[in-house]
Amino acid sequence: MPKIHPTAIVDPRATLAEDVSVGPYTIIEGAVEIGPRTVVHAHCVLKGPTRIGSDNQIGPAAYVGGDPQHLLHDQSLETWLVIGDHNIIREAASLHRATKPGIENATRVGNNCLFMSCSHVAHDAVVGNRAIFANGALTAGHVQIGDGVFLSGGVGIHQFVRIGRLAIVGGNEITTADIPPFAAARYGALKGYNAIGCKRAGIPKPSLFAIRKVYHCFHNNRMMPAVIQAIKDTCPPVPEVQEFLDFVATSKRGIHRSVRFLHVGTGEKDAGDAD
User: b/e for 12-43, b at 16 or more Cβ within 10 A?
Assistant: First the structure.
């Protein structure tokens, strides 16, 4: 039997694994599925339809599966939030369901992520594995966060922006354009690449050197076509280089510009601007 505190309120439509623990004053409303060994601490609010995997730590006072904060949201629709395994969702963090019906359109969170206090995952967002949201890191709707991304405290991500794998965004940054894989964003632009994060992720040395060369090309060429050509001409064809090129080729919001060209005052497009 799940261990449910006497003061908790659990909707009969909810499905809890046998070893789930639910703390004091928590409310679970609607079709919420919670997997094995997940602990829901005190004062949390969980709302369905939401599917939560195994070995998660939620709360205290976390808000999971709330209605999307969207003026046109139809509350009669059955919209979803899906959370994987081994995630930590701390106090006052909030993760919201999608705006479109069906589990295939769910707001999604992968595995082994950490959402520190007051962080937020908005409707229709997709968060990969091992992502870290520091205190007060906020994503707007439809944002895509790659594996191993680190969002520092107070970061704000504009709607529809993509953050590539193993990128890091510095504290209090506001991001309105895509940040490519392995990047380090600071001072309103791309400062360099996430050397420490890439090393910790186990990227081999030849690929690390290639990533560094990619960002040298990025910082030495203002126009994106020139950046791409320089990468193709000078960087070894390791998978990480191709990952960068594929990300840039599929960008719809444009790429965050280089810090080197941040204050260039001409009317010409910067390397980070969409073509």
Answer: eebebeeebbbbeebebbebbbbbebbbbbbb
Report pTM. 0.93
Domain with 51 in it: 3-160
pLDDT of residue 275: 38
Q: What is the pLDDT of residues 216-263, one digit of tens each?
A: 999 999 899 999 999 999 999 999 999 999 999 999 999 999 998 876
Does 200 fall in a domain?
no
Residue of 169, 47, 38 lying closest to 111 (CA atoms): 38
Which residues is 89 bridged to in the sheet?
58, 115
Q: Is residue 221 part of a domain?
A: no
Tell me the C-alpha distance between 107 and 125, whole Å.
5
* Structure confidence by residue, pLDDT tens digits, 170-182: 999 999 999 999 9
Q: Give how far the C-alpha of residue 67 lies from the chain's centroid of Cα atoms, to the nearest Å.
A: 19
- List residues with catalytic annotation: 123-124, 141
- For 47-58, b/e burial (b = at least 16 CB within 10 A) is bbbbbbbbbbbb
For β-strands 183-186 and 189-193, DSSP reports them as: antiparallel
- Dihedrals phi, psi of 126, to nearest 5 degrees: -130, 120
Split into its structural domains, the chain has a count of 1
Count of Cβ atoms closer than 10 Å to residue 131 Cβ = 25
- pLDDT one-digit tens code per residue, 49-64: 999 999 999 999 999 9
Residue 122 lies in a domain: yes
CATH number, domain with residue 142: 2.160.10.10
Span 177-211, pLDDT tens digits: 999 999 999 999 999 999 999 999 999 999 999 99
- Tell me whether residue 244 is in a domain: no
